[in-house]
């Protein structure tokens, strides 16, 4: 397949749109569904599509366990699209006031043209701070580091893979809806190439029941 010229760039601009919904099953359990659309670098054309299903169990008011599955399709210009599957297991817990952490292990498998399984470790810290007295507007600052734990024949190399630092403002819109515009800076470590800096404008639309 042909690799877009932007893949070799040191800096790109992207747009990510996330549509998410979750439903509470009971006081401690919920299920969720996410559709994530990512643009091609330096373009508005679709580059990657995630369909993710998840389950979360709250151990306490502040600590939760989650399991998710994602089907990922990457659009290839003038070539066949690539597909991969991802399983993730995570625990989320508080660190200090207004700051929580999530520790996630992820398995990437079923990649087009490969039988390998890629293992990843993805810790994240997030600051959540209310901006109004009603609790309907919230500032979120986050940082996630992605480590590859093994080498694969689909291009994963063990070691530091990427860092994502983001800032967003979350707005509650009525009882069941939310909207969150934000910006993410992503540093991608590449084998035999300079690191790439991605500047990402994101918009998340939420439905909660």
Give the helix tally.
0
Number of strands: 11
DSSP strand content = over 45%
Oligomer: single chain
Order of helices and strands: EEEEEEEEEEE
Low-confidence stretches: 1-7
Which term fits the overall shape?
globular
- Helix content estimate: under 10%
Largest sheet report: 11 strands, mixed, barrel
Query: Rounded to an integer, what's the Rg over CA atoms?
Result: 18 Å
Strand order across the largest sheet: 1-2-3-4-5-6-7-8-9-10-11
What is the rounded distance between the termini?
A: 43 Å
Commentary on this structure:
The radius of gyration is 18 Å and the shape is globular. The termini are far apart. 0% of the residues lie in helices and 67% in strands. The protein is mainly β. It has no helices and 11 strands.
What is this entry, summarized?
It contains no helices and eleven strands. By secondary structure, the protein is mostly beta strands.
Keywords:
209 residues; mainly beta; 11-stranded mixed β-barrel; 0% helix; globular
């Amino acid at each position: 397949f042909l690799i877009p010229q932007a893949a070799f760039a040191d800096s790109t601009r992207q747009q990510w749109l996330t549509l998410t919904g979750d439903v509470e099953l009971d006081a401690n359990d919920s299920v969720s569904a996410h559709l994530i659309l990512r643009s091609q670098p330096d373009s508005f054309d679709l580059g990657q599509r995630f369909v993710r299903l998840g389950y979360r169990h709250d151990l306490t008011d502040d600590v939760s366990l989650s399991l998710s599955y994602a089907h990922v399709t990457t659009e290839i210009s003038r070539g066949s699209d690539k597909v991969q599957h991802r399983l993730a297991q995570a625990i989320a817990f508080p660190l200090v006031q207004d700051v929580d952490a999530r520790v996630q292990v992820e398995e990437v498998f079923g990649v087009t043209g490969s039988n390998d399984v890629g293992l990843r470790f993805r810790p994240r810290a997030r600051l959540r701070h209310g901006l109004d007295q009603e609790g309907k507007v919230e500032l979120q600052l986050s940082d996630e580091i992605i480590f590859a734990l093994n080498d694969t024949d689909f291009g994963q190399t063990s070691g530091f893979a990427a860092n994502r630092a983001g800032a967003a403002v979350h707005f509650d819109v009525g009882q069941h809806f939310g909207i969150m515009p934000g910006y993410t800076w992503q540093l991608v470590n590449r084998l035999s190439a300079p690191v790439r800096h991605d500047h990402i404008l994101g918009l998340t639309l939420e439905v909660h029941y």
